Amino acid sequence: MSFDGVLIRHVLRELKVLEGGKVQKIHQLPDFTFLFTIQARGTKTLLLSASKHSARMHLTRQRYRKPEEPPLFCKLLRKHLESARLKGVEQLDNDRVVTFTFLTRDRYGERVERRLIVELFGKDANVILCDENRRIFDALNHVHPFEGGRTLVAGAHYEYPLDERQNPFENGAQARLESIRGEHPRDYLQAFQGVSPMLISEYLHRRRTIEDPETFFGLLHEQRYEIRSDGKVRFAPYEITHAGGRLRRFESPSEMLDAAFEEQARRAQENQLAKQLRTFIKQRLERAKNKIDALADDLRKTEERDTLRKKGELILANYHRIGKGDRTLVAEDYETGETLEIALEPTKTPIENSEAYFRRAKKLKKSIPHIQRQIKYAKRERAYFELLEDQLTRADLDDLAEIREELIEEGYWKQARSNRKKQRATKTARHLVYYDPEGIEIHVGKNNVQNARITHELARPHHVWFHVKDAPGAHVIVRQGFPLSETTLRTAAQLASYHSRMRHSSSVPVDYTEVKNLKKIPGQKPGFVTYKNQKTLFIDPDEDYIASLKQK
User: Fold this and answer.
1) What is the distance between the alpha carbons of residues 374 and 355, in angstroms, rounded to a whole number?
2) What's the pLDDT tens digit per position in 465-519?
3) Residue 550 pairs with which residues in a beta bridge?
4) Is the CB of residue 258 less than 8 Å from the CB of residue 60?
5) How far apart are CA 483 and CA 495, in angstroms?
6) Does 382 fall in a domain?
7) What is the mean pLDDT of the chain?
8) Is the N-terminal amide bond of 346 cis, ω within 30° of 0?
9) How many other C-beta atoms are found inside a 10 Å radius of the C-beta of residue 405?
10) Residue that terminates a domain, selected from 195, 223, 251
11) Cβ-proximal residues to 235 (8 Å cutoff; 6+ apart), any chain
12) Do 118 and 205 sit in the same domain of this protein?
């Protein structure tokens, strides 16, 4: 994402509506974002952000959670700027430095100017409050004299940052463009002030594809606000032709920026939660696999019970040969004829040694059903977390929240009581709804909660249920009974195979049957069922076909 000098010019044209407006309230959010409520032809909110991850400025219609107690810098802004009127907004050349000039009154009632200078330099973003002579009252981020460069502390004189590169909106820009001989984006970034790598990438792409020598300056003056999302969020005040992904267009730069940074915040939250869930599920999978291995070892050890029993019997058969204090007995195995050496406890009698072997053999025999139950339970756990692991690959933020809530309900994920109500409120994720080429409605669950919902709540007994055979995957419900057309059958099978771990395989087996043939597994996790009277068809997952289907 790039908030460059070119985009700032577009935003400033929109901010003209604020000139003459009165500042009513100022709030500072935890991420160094400031909200100015300004009365100017209606109430408007100006957002100024010095966040190192999302430095920007624009009008906003988003609602933000405001802290009850303002930080010290916010108190300073309120002291000097609340009730002030915005005189004007000015950009430094084509740089990412913007000065807001306010008219207000000092403590003596005299009319004075206050300047709020916003530097949108990414991780070095800053907000500085000055008087009319640019004497600094304070800065959000201080730079002391001994640190080198400009001094940004209270009492110092503010100096604008120097940038000797060519302003692309001034005379000489054409000649500077023609003087560039290289094809590397760095050559253009070093030549022109306030242009982003994305703008240069767009220019070079257009030059290669449409051979328009005026493209560079055409880009600077385009007014086409759009967002491209393809795993990365890109936004610009011009058409983005060098990147693909989902396209959204907007009427103004502020609307575009509101949407872009909302999506960025959502993705950051999504990535954080996905990372937490992946780590948690990976740990649980490893624990289940280790438990299965350990139990398998225990089960193999129970095979020693017959040998232990035989040793007990041989001690009884040869007790007359055992002397007091003997540590071993060498006897002939009555089944194989081989010589067997049996360890003895010298402090015990032959009868006591024999009983000890019998007890150990009996204990191993009694442990077999318990170990087998534990192995069965551990395998269920492994299958459950393998399913969740697969579901994470297709989950958005709402789906991730549902998976976390499911883990909380199942007792795996420990959640503070104070957060439970908040987390429960996130259970609003929607399952997928497709329409096949004949218009038949098909529902697809993206996690266990949704699978259980569409199968046990929305579906009717005569509806048809699809699922990949013997692999984790989504429940797919065709909201129609038999007979189904070949088109509907194959579309539902496509959806079941694509929304499963088998999506990259070929000739994937997909079972289907009526919903009335499904049965919940007692004590099992949500979404797990047994079924009967199924038929199976084989399908090759086709992502392009899935993308062509109409969705609700």
Assistant:
1) 29
2) 999 998 889 999 999 999 999 999 999 999 999 999 898 899 999 999 999 999 9
3) 435
4) yes
5) 19
6) no
7) 90
8) no
9) 21
10) 251
11) 1, 225, 226, 227, 228, 256, 257, 260
12) no
Terminal C-alpha separation, the chain: 30
**Whole-angstrom Cα distance, residue 468 to residue 488?**
16
Q: Would you say 22 and 70 are in contact if contact means Cβ atoms under 8 Å apart?
A: no
| Residue 275 is assigned to a structural domain of this protein | no
Describe the strand order of the beta sheet including 508-514 as a list of residue ranges: 535-539, 508-514, 464-468, 476-478, 441-444, 432-435, 550-551
Q: Are residues 10 and 129 in the same domain?
A: yes
Cα–Cα distance between 229 and 243 in angstroms, integer?
9
pLDDT at 337: 81
The residue segments making up the domain with residue 179 are: 173-251
Q: Which of 236, 251, 266 is the last residue of a domain?
A: 251
Length of the chain: 552
- pLDDT, tens digit (0-9, with 9 covering 90-100), for 214-268: 688 989 999 999 999 887 899 999 999 999 888 999 999 999 999 999 988 888 8
In terms of domains, do 134 and 243 share one?
A: no
| Residues 437 and 501 reside in one and the same domain | yes
> In a 3-state reduction of DSSP, which class is residue 191?
helix
> How many domains is the chain partitioned into structurally?
3
9 falls within a domain: yes
pTM: 0.68
User: Does some domain include residue 409?
Assistant: no
Q: Residue 26, Cβ neighbours under 10 Å: how many? A: 22
Angle between helices 253-301 and 397-409 (to 10 degrees): 40
Domain match, 532 and 488 both: yes
* 442, pLDDT greater than 80: yes
- How many CA atoms within 13 Å lie on the side-chain side of 250? 17
Helix (H, G, I), strand (E, B) or coil at 39: strand
Tokens of 327: 């540590």
For β-strands 476-478 and 464-468, DSSP reports them as antiparallel
**Domain shared by 143 and 182, yes or no:** no
**Structure tokens given for 43:** 């109430």
Helix (H, G, I), strand (E, B) or coil at 300: helix
Helices 253-301, 350-392: crossing angle, 10 deg rounding: 160
Rounded to whole angstroms, the Cα distance separating 248 from 265 reads: 17
| Three-class DSSP category at 135 | strand
Which residues fall within 8 angstroms of residue 83, CB to CB, at 6 or more apart? 22, 23, 24, 104
**Distance between CA atoms of residues 254 and 181, nearest Å:** 36
Q: How far apart are CA 398 and CA 432, in angstroms?
A: 12
Find the DSSP H helices in 302-447: 305-317, 350-392, 397-409, 417-424
Question: What H or E segment, with its residue span, contains residue 298?
Answer: helix 253-301
Say if residue 10 is in the same domain as residue 93.
yes
- Rounded CA gap, 321 and 350, in Å? 10
For residues 198 and 196, what is the distance between their CA atoms, to the nearest angstrom? 5
13 and 127, same structural domain?
yes
Amino acid residing at 309: R
pLDDT at position 394 is 84
